[in-house]
Design goal:
The complex is a heterotrimer of chains A (170), B (127) and C (120). With 170 residues, chain A is mainly α. Chain A is built from 8 helices and no strands. The longest helix of chain A is centred in the middle third of the chain and has 26 residues, at 55-80. Chain B is 68% helix and 0% strand. Chain B has helices spanning 8-32, 39-42, 62-90, 94-121. Chain B is mostly helical. Chain C has 120 residues and is an all-alpha fold. The mean pLDDT of chain C is 81. The chains are: A mainly alpha (170), B mainly alpha (127), C mainly alpha (120). Chains in contact: A-B, A-C, B-C.
Amino acid sequence: MGFEQILFWLLALGVIVTSALVVLPPGGKNPLYGALLLIVSFFFMSGLYVLLFAHTMAVLQILVYAGAIMVLFTFVIMLLNLSKKELGDETRTIAKGVGVVAVVALAVKTALVIETQTLNIPAKPLPAGFGGVDAIADTLFHNYLVPFELTGVLLLVAVIGAVVLAKRTL
Amino acid sequence: MDPNYAPYVSVLACSIFVLGLGAVILILNYMLGPRRPTREKGIPYESGDEPHSKPRQRFSVKFYMTAILFLVFDLEVVFIYPWASKYSDWLKDDAFAGIAFGGMMVFVAVLTLGLVYEWKRGAMEWE
Amino acid sequence: MNPVSDVAARAAEAAAPVAHSIPLYWFLVVAVVLFAIGSAGVLARRNALTVLMSVEIMLNAVNLAFLAFAREWGNMHGHVVTFFVIAVAAAEAAIGLALVLGLFRHKKSVNLDELTALRN
């Protein structure tokens, strides 16, 4: 196994373990632990993006996800400063167990299906500048100009909605 | 190794060095440092004021409003950055340069509407 | 693109495929596992903050799949979609957390099971 494969498995193991701990007890019991673990998982994910030659997205992953979105999460968690009672009891119901089993079964099935379906995709050679900022700008403004404008509208709605919902003091 | 990874060798070396240095310092401190805890050493401000209120207080919602502003304008900059990086190349093609310029101006104008709204609602005032 | 030239193009590429050192399938398996973790979190956790973080995990899994396929097809469309997904995730986090603040203001709890105002 080459160096890249070893790096891949280390990063994949890291991202899966930290993401699982967001949902399982350390993070699931205390959201602040969950938020910090999720930031670590974003760093591992950014490493996986580098292995896919997605250089710009690797930077944006840390810049936007770890740098802005998780700051927002951490602020709200510390803002509410929830006690155990306010977090609510995590009840264990049969419906939840069935749901989790169904999700695991679906994941196993999906993994088996994509194994047979993806093995015969011939990989195309990468164009020059693949994953760089200029390549993203070309595709974004030549092929996705209207979705780009709509993203602006979405962000406008997010700002207005957040102000309307959160302006009244706690 | 794939030549695409070449610039990241220094990043990897730096990460390993930083993580290793942190681990070595913590381990050496744990192994070599003497530990004789007393109650006086354990208080938050050693030899200082006694804490008079609990540290678990609610933060103000004002921090959340600031974080929202930061998040949205952070994203705006992230969208402008590739455009700015590529724009000088697009200037060679007049028709597309106009479209790209107009598209970005509409995007910025839409987000400026959000800024104006926040300003009018007083979400940016600290009191 | 008409199907005939599409088939011809695929045949031409099949003649000279690029061998990446890390196969596409490995990335897809990681994406599937992450998506399963995220959806299990959404289903099993009743704390609104953990549910929102599980949604972020699911979005990340989808991003990974998009980028893996972008490398396989050798074009940038997957990257641009990931770009949009990050913007949507930011908007979703802003609104979702504002809703959590509102929920806490009314119920003094962030447990989603308390949201029963419309029941019966």
